[in-house]
Amino acid sequence: MKKILCAIAMLAIMAPVFAQTVEKTEFTGYVGETTVTKQSTYTPDFRVDGKNAKVRNVILLIGDGMGLAAVNAGMYANGGELTLTNLHTFGFVRTQSDDNFTTDSAASGTAYATGKKTTNGFVGMDPGKNAIPNIPEMLSPLGYACGVVSTDDLNGATPASFFAHQDSRNKTDEIWADLPSACLDFVSAGSTGVFAQRPEATRNAIEKRYNMVGSLNEVDGTASPVMYLPPSVALAERGDYLPATTRKAIEYLSKQSKKGFFLMVEGARIDKEEHSNNTYGFVREMLDFDKAIEEAIRFAEKDGHTLVLISADHETGGVALRGGDPEKGFIRTAFASTGHTAITVPIYAYGPQSKNFQCFLENSDVANKILEILGGKKLKK
Ligand SMILES: [Zn+2]
After folding, report:
1. Does 3.30.230.10 match the CATH number of domain 29-335+358-376?
2. Residue 200 C-alpha to ligand 1 middle, in angstroms?
3. How far apart are CA 365 and CA 202, in angstroms?
4. What is the pTM of this model?
5. Span from the CA of 209 to the centroid of ligand 1 (angstroms)
6. Is 158 within 8 Å of 105 (Cβ atoms)?
7. Which residues touch 91 (CB under 8 Å, ≥6 apart)?
8. How far is the CA of 379 from the centre of ligand 1 (A)?
9. Tens digits of per-residue pLDDT, 314-373?
10. How far apart are CA 44 and CA 297, in angstroms?
């Protein structure tokens, strides 16, 4: 009897720990399904992967909103494989911002770009609104060439984190006005139309600073810095923009510096399609992003001194897999949200020093590790 009383008392004490509210509703909304045509994937040899060899170049690919479920949906819809999931080295990244359990792309982009966590909405600024140096600003004085490629508008939170310092991601004109002082040799994102809407003084300053080209073919032989703004970055209109520009950026940056280069490539629209709970849209964006990843992996395999990192700024949509048939390219999903979620996101690594990322990391750790690998002791902390 005493034992039973003790057990009851224990349960009473522990009850608050287990207290929870469950609202049971039939889940009917936010479901989706799609069938896609299989695209080819690439498996590199792994001779350089995980080796202690010197890293000259780092290519950081950020899938905006690319949680593990987005990777899975893309993988199963593509017959069970992606170039991304052919890689051997991976870890997980915590994405919380300085002020919020659920980050936005500005705070997480800033963490990836600067190694510092900040307030949601801030771009390249700490919570006290002080500008914090980004990777290009730290590596460029050491002789590295730096580039940014994105399927977002150039003022989008992720690309902006690598050149701008503003206390709001919505300060579009101010973000564009930060471009003339950016430490970037290659810049490409959306779009000619968005550029045309900026104030004349900003456009003039950008045109003065950058060699603006109308197509990727014009990039060859153009002096640094170079800017390519395509007419559109929408999936239906941009064709193979992301993989083609990634390939060109790698080619261009490798010629710019003997020291090495840093390139950030963003697959920006996985997130946007997940916000709309559009299964076809985010799976197509995921597959397009995988083609850009392939470009980076093929280069890294040949080069031997390039570290490729693929991760996400946060998960979007609370995507779940409810069913699928990889043989048919069919996937059925559900969404728990139309916003961002706080779950850890995967990070994949390929090349020398990749093992540094085979753990649980903070998003800010990724930048700090990149800086340590490329800059080492030469960087002032
Ligand atoms: Zn988003």
Report:
1. no
2. 30
3. 34
4. 0.93
5. 31
6. yes
7. 346, 347, 349, 357, 358, 359, 360, 361
8. 32
9. 999 999 999 999 999 999 999 999 999 999 999 999 999 999 999 999 999 999 999 999
10. 7
